[in-house]
Design goal:
Layout: E1 2-4, E2 7-13, H1 41-52, E3 55-61, E4 64-70
Antiparallel strand pairs: 1-2, 2-4, 3-4
């Protein structure tokens, strides 16, 4: 996990191939090699990001799954 500027990146190295970006954040989606879980985690993360005004993106690079959440700059008007 790294935090640079307003980008929080969570990385996971894996022998499994790239996930389907078009389905990744949908409820109950599980990758082809998923054995555990019910496919709700990334859907919940996406909903929280949307509600908070953050963006989330996924990349698969060099056998590594990267999820980057771009946080928004907080201003004084956010506290009114």
């Amino acid at each position: 996990m790294t935090l640079k500027d307003l980008n929080l990146t969570i990385s996971n190295s894996s022998p499994y191939p790239e996930l389907d970006y078009n389905k990744l954040f949908k409820r109950f989606y599980r990758g082809a090699h998923s054995e555990d879980g019910n496919g709700l985690g990334l859907s919940i993360v996406k909903q929280v990001c949307d509600m908070a005004g953050y963006s989330i993106k996924y990349q698969y690079v060099n056998d590594r799954h990267d999820f980057t959440i771009t946080l928004k700059q907080i201003t004084k008007t956010d506290f009114h």
